[in-house]
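Lab notes, practical 5.
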Amino acid sequence: MDKFTAFIKKKKWWFIVGAAVVVVLLFFAFRNGNDGFKTVDVQRGTVVSEVSVTGQVKPSQKIDLAFEGGGRIAAIDVKVGDRVIQGQRLAALESADLYAQLSQAQATLKAQQAKLEELKKGARPEDIATKEAELKKAEADLASYYVDIVNVVNDAYAKADDAVRKQLDDFFTNDDINPQLTFSSTNSQAANDARTKRFLSGTKLTEWRKALDTLDTTLPPSSLEVALVDAQGRLSVIRDFLNTAAQALDGSIDLSASALTTLKTNINTARTNVNTAASNVTTQDQLIAAQILTIARIQSELDLKRAGATAEQLIAQEALAEQAQGQIEYYQSQIAKNVLRTPFAGVVTKVSFEVGEIVAAKTAVISIVGAGFYEIEANVAESDIAKIKIGNTARVTLDAYGSDIEFDASVVSIDLSETIVEGVATYKTRLQFAKEDTRILPGLTANVDILSDRKENVLFVPTRNVITKNGHRYMKVLSGDGTVSEVEIVTGLRGSDGRTEIVRGVLEGAKIVVE
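Output from the prediction step:
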């Protein structure tokens, strides 16, 4: 202890000098060379405003591809990880039935086009000659049908006369004068009607025989047609008689079993023969009517060939050709819908089905992400959205690589409608990377500083030194005589870097008192 005290006494002047130096240094430190005020200078430089957000890396394009209609998958041309170019086929459904329909439509088009060309060229002489020969044959056939009327009507009379006067001879006594049934019937109405109709049938047959005596194949077609119609009417009367006689026979009460059987056999034969005769007459009438129509058609076709195609016919045929072309285009479009093609270049990320599987309409089959630049999707708060616009550049860091590695990007779109995130209104903003980089992968978290504004070579001071009172801004300025005064200023850009632009109020180099 005595040694320490002696040392202090011996070195006393060194302590005094050291203490004085400390006091002087502290004085200058607090005074900052400005009469005791700490100041900063108004400087000239750059003021930058940035908006910082966090987003996620996403591909610029992404799509899930599906067939418009369902069906069985015939081909899958890609696998996960394959790079594809725009328009490349990815998959296809079975389309054999559509190809068959397409072939049929193409054949129809060829036929319609050939007919159109034929109409345009007009009929050849040999075509006209062929059609004239066809018309002559049709007319000859019609003439033959008219000649056949004589045989058909005479045969009908023979069958009708046999039915009434032979097959039903045992039904009546005094047949043609005052017919009376040879049996009693419980169906008195049918019995009375049968007697009356037997007399009428006999009369019709007699008249018919006289008409047939004058019927000849040399008669004009109109007279022959009258004979055919007359035969139909007379056969109708006789068929009605036979039906009534059958009803009376069904009610017979005094016939032996054998006699009843014989009468039933006879009337059935009569009815069958008369029905056959009526059918033959009707058939002949139909043959003639059909042949008349055939001749009219052939004559019309011949007239057209002789006259050539009209403008209306050409237009109609052109319409048929266009319709056939439309069918071809329809089936081609249906086949195209059965093929999946990528709308942009990219990479296959998912294949959901295999060949042979049945897929429903509008079910995702293959997923593609675009091969272009990746994008960042971020939600910008409403307080910052007014600061940015499309085209603003940005600095980006990815959590996967740390803050030392930066990437350049720019704003490419800003949603006009808000997105609520945790109760706060935000606006979805997309930024696109300036360059392709293999380190950029979808799903990475991105920290983005969007440069909203930048001013160079302007006056600025630290933002914390700007005083706001009653809507005006001031700064405490140290004058040359050491006094401090509040000077009103006009500010410009307020940077995100802690600087505020000074538009007017102070000059470069002015001393601003720091609080």
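Observations recorded by the TA: The CA atoms of residues 61 and 395 lie 22 Å apart. Residues 101-122+311-335 form one domain.
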